[in-house]
Known about the structure:
It is a single chain. The strands form five sheets. Strands 2, 3, 5, 6, 7, 8, 11, 12, 16 and 17 form a ten-stranded mixed sheet that branches. A six-stranded parallel sheet has the order 20-19-18-21-22-23, sandwiched between helices. The protein is globular and about 70 Å long. Helix 3 crosses helix 4 (170-182) and helix 4 crosses helix 8 (234-241). It is 37% helix and 19% strand. The protein folds into two domains: 8-284 and 494-506, Glycogen Phosphorylase B (Rossmann fold, 3-Layer(aba) Sandwich), CATH 3.40.50.2000; 306-489, Rossmann fold (3-Layer(aba) Sandwich), CATH 3.40.50.2000. It is an alpha/beta fold. The longest helix is centred in the N-terminal third of the chain and has 19 residues, at 140-158.
Amino acid sequence: xxxxxxxxxxxxxxxxxxxxxxxxxxxxxxxxxxxxxxxxxxxxxxxxxxxxxxxxxxxxxxxxxxxxxxxxxxxxxxxxxxxxxxxxxxxxxxxxxxxxxxxxxxxxxxxxxxxxxxxxxxxxxxxxxxxxxxxxxxxxxxxxxxxxxxxxxxxxxxxxxxxxxxxxxxxxxxxxxxxxxxxxxxxxxxxxxxxxxxxxxxxxxxxxxxxxxxxxxxxxxxxxxxxxxxxxxxxxxxxxxxxxxxxxxxxxxxxxxxxxxxxxxxxxxxxxxxxxxxxxxxxxxxxxxxxxxxxxxxxxxxxxxxxxxxxxxxxxxxxxxxxxxxxxxxxxxxxxxxxxxxxxxxxxxxxxxxxxxxxxxxxxxxxxxxxxxxxxxxxxxxxxxxxxxxxxxxxxxxxxxxxxxxxxxxxxxxxxxxxxxxxxxxxxxxxxxxxxxxxxxxxxxxxxxxxxxxxxxxxxxxxxxxxxxxxxxxxxxxxxxxxxxxxxxxxxxxxxxxxxxxxxxxx
Length: 507
């Protein structure tokens, strides 16, 4: 086992847990990312939030993820005296020993949440989760097969007869369902399994030789369970074998059954539509709370937000080098990728500046888009500001300091940033896709209802019209203020989604 320890997570990071009761539903949760240990995006936030909420509602949850080289190790974590042993790939005789680093539980609430990091230095001790500056790691199939099989071994150590439910997130955890249903015997085959698709664009696709490398049964290739377009597709196999499949919003569940958003798997998803369900993500409303957020210069609640929000807006403008102005401030915090549509927003920026708005752009990602964001700020000094970074505290200051928060995604399974923005009183301006449609109620012309502006299409012209509607709303001070309060009062917590998942598990 490792002796060295990297950056630590504070003790008690998951605060709402307790020992299990005799009636607790035993849930094995498996994810390649978990906030705050290691994450690249919303997947880690969603898995942590759902797991905590399930524990609040009385479930006994074991959450398993790898220990990477970049993992922030929980304070007080310790290795199990006996590692687990799992067959993980490179043929049927490849049995590996995996260390198990257990985070200390913190008691509170009706259920139990325990977090375990599976550890194998050769496979996981790297400077990234999925890849590095040279691209994706070439052995990701074996790495995440190890995570998944290690998670099943952890579950057997916790519960001699195993979990009631195996809940796998995205293709990285799909091997847990494949193993349970195909290679581990009748007891595992009978376990209920749920696959959650957070982003269908990523499917875990490998050559046919990976079937032997991962010791998967050839019959499952021959009957089409694992094969898609002549290649091994791990997500395809898990969709086929899982008892239930969920996505992170109802609209996205419908969209992925179409050729446009199905990424080649839409026929399979239509075939399995009776077990497919969209359940909206929530957010951690304790961590994202403007009433106690130390990153803000002034804190506020929905009952009386405007004086403090004004101070946050002035502070953000000063921090970002923008001119002082009473006009509207538009902002975006995003991964800079084609999916996120930041190029659509950049096409709109000149018109926003011409109409008296200021713009803040924060994010990192594709080099070409990073350059474009930087050039926009260069072109309009004092009116447009950019930061090429991932910075959680800065993001929350942007939510608090902006009037309108633009989410111009071409497709968006759920999206969390619009939920964060509403929580902080920034009205979202969104494209009509995926979870954005499900979470943002349109503000209509009379401004008496709704929580944001919804464009008519995912293109720059439609986005501009929505931004112009936002400018009109800003001039209606009473209507704008009422919309801010409505947005802040929206219940975006994990409680309702977790109850839906419990109903799904028990169905």
